[in-house]
Write a structure and sequence with these properties.
Strand content: 35-45%
Radius of gyration: 17 Å
Largest sheet: 7 strands, antiparallel
CATH class: Mainly Beta
Bound molecules: flavin mononucleotide
Number of helices: 3
Shape: globular
Number of domains: 1
Structural class: mainly beta
Order of helices and strands: HEEEEEHEHEEEEEE
Distance between the termini: 26 Å
Length: 170
């Protein structure tokens, strides 16, 4: 075990340490007058039930998020097991991220990917400056889950996609 205690935290050590926190993967999506928008996002979490709020953090260098922010709304697509290629596709800046992907639309007009576990459609409720990221809070306006016998999420742990056996309960 390595423990680092210092006012200067090494970025690689920081990433390695927080990479021990397992999460799911989402695509944050939106739509402006130039078409559908989206980026892969691990930092999604739920914040409040009343009012219903969720959050994610986005790098200040993102070229997609400022266009989503301008519309005032976004959707969260929670990826399922087997959607690793979708996650990779939406992590590549400056490409046609929506190529060959079937989509439908929320009431607010945000694109939803097919084959996901669940989705939420939000209005931007607040933004907070946070170092090299912006923390975005969304108020949930509409949401849904996809029915399936054994819904299996796409997981991320130590920088790699992982599988979770949904029938294995501890
Ligand atoms: C597994 C994974 C998780 C990611 N999580 C985040 C995240 O939480 N926040 C973020 O800003 N970028 C995250 N990214 C990186 C963005 O997806 C990527 O920088 C973005 O798509 C860049 O495209 P853009 O310039 O079109 O915004 C993640 C990438 C991967 C592969």
């Amino acid at each position: 075990m390595r423990t680092t205690t210092s006012n200067t935290i090494d970025p690689a050590c920081f990433r390695r340490t927080v990479g021990r926190y397992a999460s799911g993967i989402t695509i944050i999506s939106g739509h402006d007058d130039q078409g559908p928008l989206g980026f892969t996002c691990q930092s999604f979490y739920s914040v409040s039930v009343d009012p219903p709020l969720v959050s994610f953090s986005v790098m200040k260098t993102s070229s997609t998020y400022p266009r989503i922010r301008d519309t005032g709304t976004f959707a969260v697509n929670i990826l399922s097991h087997g959607q690793e290629a979708v996650s990779d596709q939406f992590a590549r800046s400056g490409t046609d991220k929506w190529a060959r992907l079937p989509v439908r639309s929320t009431d607010q007009g945000n694109p939803l990917l097919e084959g996901t576990l669940a989705w939420l459609d939000c209005q931007i409720w607040a933004e907070y400056d946070a170092g090299d990221h912006v923390i975005v809070i969304g108020r949930v306006m509409e949401l849904g889950t996809t029915d399936g016998h054994h819904p299996a999420p796409l997981m991320y742990f130590e920088g790699k996609y992982r599988a979770l056996r949904p029938d294995e309960v501890v």
